[in-house]
Amino acid sequence: MNKNNHNEYPINFFTAIFIRFIILKLIVFDSHPVQYRVPLWESLAKKFGSDFTVIYASSCSVDGYLDSGFNKKISWDLPLLNGYSSIILHSDNGKPLSGWNSLTGKGINSILRSIKPDMIFLTGMNYRFDFTALILAFIWRIPVCLRCETQDEAVERSIVKSFFRTILYKTIYKRFSLIFYIGELNKQHYLKHGVSENMLFPANYFTIDRFKAFSNFDKEFLRNNLRENLNISLSDLVIGFSGKLISKKRPDILFDAIRYLPFEIQRKVHIYFIGSGEMEDELKSKAVEIQNLYGIRAHFAGFVNQSELPAHYLNLDILVLPSRKRGETWGLVVNEAMQAGCSVITSDAVGCNVDFKSWERFRVFNEGDAIDLASKITSLSFFERDYSWAYSRLKYYSLESSTDSIYSNILNYFAD
């Protein structure tokens, strides 16, 4: 059986029933409730039942916290603690999520002693909290599995730093029994750092499909209604950005690319920003310049919470994620945009480009190259809007696919 493609993972029925109801207790250690991971915990809880628990270090995303990227206090408008059993340890040390020691290992040993799990599941190695769980699992002889977004291409490193990083990862990864990779670069990272291929299984990054309940008529209505409310022509080519308006994401290059577009495309372009951040004032100044020079308008939607996103994505024709090589390990806005049927352009510094670059309406441009970006916009401008062009291929980047892979391969591990 090839364990590294998108195949099903068969489980002996009687073994699955025995493990499911008699033996297996799974604990997830996660830094805080994250809006794109919570659906996975809800889905796994349906599989494992009462033997599944998520242990959070912090409740900052539920309470609301200052996100320096968005430059505002963030509190997601989705229920983040429903549908699964969870315990919050409140092991914050100073500002949450601000560094390795900002989430401590307080309370983990007591949890392990109380629940006595058969396996623990880690979502990263970013905090003292994560390392404490891993070390205690080793002491207690509990197998550990991992799903995180680490890769080797997102950041440029010195030779010395890369050398010590490699030693560290090779040492750490020996402690894991199963590793689930979120995409191709993540998989290559593990292989490079000594993980054998038979320990690796796909659990690709996904976002909840907020569009599948909508008919094409509904999607067209939401798109047209928003455009009419914003005085955007139904025939305009809306090129958008979604995310934090920060230097790492390089949203200003959308304006730089305008001058290199053919006139027939320039005259129908509208720029659309979803998000907030430290570059907002600078971008608004550039928007005035572009309108004066080319008559091209830009709209700033501001920070948009999860439940309000669908209409904004449906409004776009092309989403651009032009990030610099400063740690864009995946780029989940790309998944959301393709679920809405948008064409997508990313820089070659965005991690998911390796997975999606061969897809029909996906383009990759050289980081920081406005001329190359303009050429990619031009090539996508001729496509008619199609809400479902990526639908069939995105099933491998879905909640269902990741849940099935994690559940099946954990059970198979114990069955073996």
TrEMBL record:
<dbReference type="Pfam" id="PF00534">
    <property type="entry name" value="Glycos_transf_1"/>
</dbReference>
<feature type="domain" description="Glycosyl transferase family 1">
    <location>
        <begin position="224"/>
        <end position="380"/>
    </location>
</feature>
<protein>
    <recommendedName>
        <fullName>Glycosyl transferase family 1 domain-containing protein</fullName>
    </recommendedName>
</protein>
<dbReference type="InterPro" id="IPR050194">
    <property type="entry name" value="Glycosyltransferase_grp1"/>
</dbReference>
<dbReference type="InterPro" id="IPR001296">
    <property type="entry name" value="Glyco_trans_1"/>
</dbReference>
<keyword id="KW-0472">Membrane</keyword>
<dbReference type="GO" id="GO:0016757">
    <property type="term" value="F:glycosyltransferase activity"/>
</dbReference>
<keyword id="KW-0812">Transmembrane</keyword>
<keyword id="KW-1133">Transmembrane helix</keyword>
<feature type="transmembrane region" description="Helical">
    <location>
        <begin position="12"/>
        <end position="29"/>
    </location>
</feature>
